[in-house]
Design a protein that fits this description.
The complex is a heterodimer of chains A (278) and B (181). Helix content of chain A is 42%, strand content 19%. Chain A is an alpha+beta fold and 278 residues long. An eight-stranded antiparallel β-sheet of chain A has the order 3-4-5-6-10-9-8-7. A two-stranded antiparallel ribbon of chain A has the order 1-2. In chain A, a hairpin with a 5-residue loop joins β3 and β4. About 35% of the residues of chain A have low confidence. With 181 residues, chain B is mainly α. Chain B folds into two domains: 87 residues, RNA polymerase sigma factor, region 2, helix turn helix motif (Rna Polymerase Sigma Factor, Chain: A); 80 residues, Arc Repressor Mutant, subunit A (Orthogonal Bundle). Chain B has nine helices and no strands. The radius of gyration of chain B is 18 Å and the shape is globular. The N and C termini of chain B lie far apart (45 Å). About 7% of the residues of chain B have low confidence. The chains are: A alpha+beta (278), B mainly alpha (181). At the A-B interface, α1, α2 and α5 of A face α2, α3, α5, α6 and α9 of B.
Chain lengths: 278, 181
Amino acid sequence: MNEHQEQRLRDLYQLSRKEQPSTTMDKRIRQAAQGQIASRRNKWVRALSTAAVVVLSFSIVLDLTQQQPELTESDDIPVTERPETEAIPMEEEVMFDMMAPPAMPAATEIASEPEPEGQTGISDREAISPFIKFSETLKRDQKSDFADQVAPLASHTKNLSFEMSDDGIIIPTLPTTLDALLAINKSVTGKQLDNGDIEIFAGNRRILRLSHNYGVQLFTAWPGAERLEVEVNWQIGPESMFNCSYLGSALLCQWTKSVSASFRNNQLESVSWPVELR
Amino acid sequence: MNKDNISDEELYLAYHHGDMTAFDALYGRYRQNIHLFLLRQGHAESTTEDLFHDCWLRVIKNKQAFDGKNFRAWIYTIARNLSTDAFRKANIRIADPLDDYGEANAHVSAQRQQEALDCVELIKSSVAALPIEQRDVFLLKEEAGLSLQQIADVMAVGRETIKSRIRYAMQRLKQLMEDCL
């Protein structure tokens, strides 16, 4: 090949470079990028808050454990006596404060406040319950972050069971009613013919047909069928197939034991498979 | 701030320090190239979209996988790996890159050539018809603008192998595009 021809090929390739990703895709990617920054920031905030909660909870538990012996030792204070104005128990104040981590009082401050007289101690479980609530909030936030990241990826995948035919294209288990087929992808349209066959369209282009021949139900897919989760390499040539023979101007080949392929002018035109894959 | 003079690597680092404008600049540089690289592999449009999205998600999330040296080579390595995996999932045969033409291929290419009136359209289908390894080399050179050594690094083969694959790719394209040359 001479230089001129090589350059010509390169020039043609550069002229062909017209397609762009969609603006919808641009937005999705940008959202993901923003989400990554936000989640990284949130992780730091949560990490600091969690650390503070852990320290405070530990301090409170320690404090309570230390206070218990003092209460039992204090025989001078009758249980029935209470102060006239019953102060809010110290422990509840602490719990309230712990729900808003940045405003948490220092552990030493709390420990130094006097215990209301006659107040029995709360259980250890109650003391650390705000921490449990906080960590549940943490888990919920993380889950929501995860859903935001995963949902865009999963949005195109429907609740279909997939089958891989013997050695090639991916054929999902498709429903056999018009409504159910249309439900797979809202962008397609369809109709049921008088003979019972169903045809699905993307715009003006037919992408799928369900036909009934001699008691056998057969799906046929054309380019565009990926909207219904049928994945086909439409660039594949007949040289990859077996048992090819001409039927009029169409070259019919066997792709796998279940899937047949139809070529016209050596271009893969459609693939067919029985509803019940063997 | 004009980010045109900032390297890809600096933009990537700035993004991971929280600068979204850096990401926007980087995305703007590569969005069409990566899209075309995947589209020209011959994937269906919806598959190309998925692969494109997955590629960028990896760029966004896997900072630890980037060695800081060459962002361009890295992003195309990701794109290429995703594309290859997609073909493997569909069990598309990854042809021997040094396959000779063979009678069947010559027949197919002649037919295709006769039908295509538009050379620009023909180059698209011709590139997609190349064996995967030759197609990768062609696209990494013409679409990604990588050097031979960078392509060799991306494909994890020697530089001489890349030169051979380019030569075979161009010869095959010449055969497919004869009337246009």
